[in-house]
Amino acid sequence: MRIVIKVGTSTLAHKTGRLNIRRIEELCKVLSDLKNAGNEIVLVSSGAIGMGVGKLSLGSRPDDIPTKQAAAAVGQCELMYTYDKLFTEYNHNVAQILITAPDIESETRKINFHNTLERLIELDTLPIINENDTVSVEEIEIGDNDTLSAIVTASIGADLLILLSDIDGLYDKDPHKNPDAKLIDTVKAIDEHIISLGGGKGSALGTGGMATKIKAAQIATEAGCDMIIANGENPSLLYDIVAGEKIGTRFLKKVQ
Predict the structure, then answer these.
(1) SS3 of residue 197 by DSSP
(2) Order of strands, edge to edge, in the sheet holding 40-45?
(3) Which of 73, 156, 192, 248 is 20 to 30 A from 184 (CA-CA)?
(4) Residue 99: pLDDT above 90?
(5) Is residue 114 exposed (0-12), middle (13-18) or buried (19+ Cβ within 10 Å)?
(6) pLDDT per residue over 119-146, tens digit each?
(7) b/e for 29-66, b at 16 or more Cβ within 10 A?
(8) Coil, helix or strand for 81?
(9) If DSSP codes are grouped into helix, strand and coil, which group holds residue 9?
(10) Contact 163, 216 (CB under 8 A)
């Protein structure tokens, strides 16, 4: 299978912004094992700004663009250093790709991005993609890595997109406010009701939320790919997902 896996800041970092070492080690171990089994893995990783916030002891995610970009510059170094070190332990090479909106909106640059990504996969490398938060401003940003991962999924014709977050999946009502909320295990079509369940923003250190995940599902399913939202607290659940077990919420691809 060709699988795109997106991990959010809440999965990679503690609330302090500092790296969740045990979790990222487990994630890299599981992804390496899935790759060893013959799967093609592309990782879309958030966390640069969140880790920069922790490393710079800023206390909270900054609101101004220069400080966000400074935090991203510091955090991206730590993020890629960690990935490179951990995946090398399992004999896998990684490649960093940082992009902004023009890279996928301009036809020429979009083709270049696609060709580079395909070649990296052919070379048995594990591409790690993030938005280039160090240079992105409002006019050129993609906005969130949920959307970015769906765009990547469509670009390379992936078989499955998995979004790892701090929530088990899509619920029929807000589980933070309604204890009786029920997990929706399968979404056959994204209609107005499903969109209305999106709600607002996610964690304090991240930029996403359920709304961006539903938007990502629309892009992925339109491109003929199933998408799953699952809790990234235990990365080993990726084994069960790849094995076809019911985990989280699965959005079914549109039948062409």
Answers:
(1) coil
(2) 94-99, 126-131, 40-45, 2-7, 160-165, 226-231, 249-251, 186-187
(3) 156
(4) no
(5) middle
(6) 999 999 999 998 876 665 554 456 688 9
(7) bbbbebbeeebbbbbbbbbbbbbbbbbeeeeebbeeee
(8) helix
(9) helix
(10) yes
**What is the number of residues in the chain?**
256
229 three-class SS? strand
Q: Which helix (H) or strand (E) holds 99?
A: strand 94-99
Token pair of 246 as six digits:
């019911």
pTM to 2 decimals?
Answer: 0.89
Residues 95/101/103/104 CA torsion (nearest 10 deg): 100
CA distance 34 to 36: 5
Residue 164's H or E segment, with its range, is strand 160-165
162: which 2 tokens? 């998995």
Q: Which residues contact 27 (CB under 8 A, 6 or more apart)?
A: 7, 11, 12, 232, 235
Q: Which residues pair with 228 in a beta bridge?
A: 162, 250
Which parts of the chain fold into alpha helices (H)?
Answer: 9-12, 21-36, 48-55, 65-89, 102-105, 107-122, 145-156, 192-196, 210-222, 237-242
Report the distance separating Cα 158 and Cα 14, nearest Å: 30
pLDDT confidence of residue 48? 83
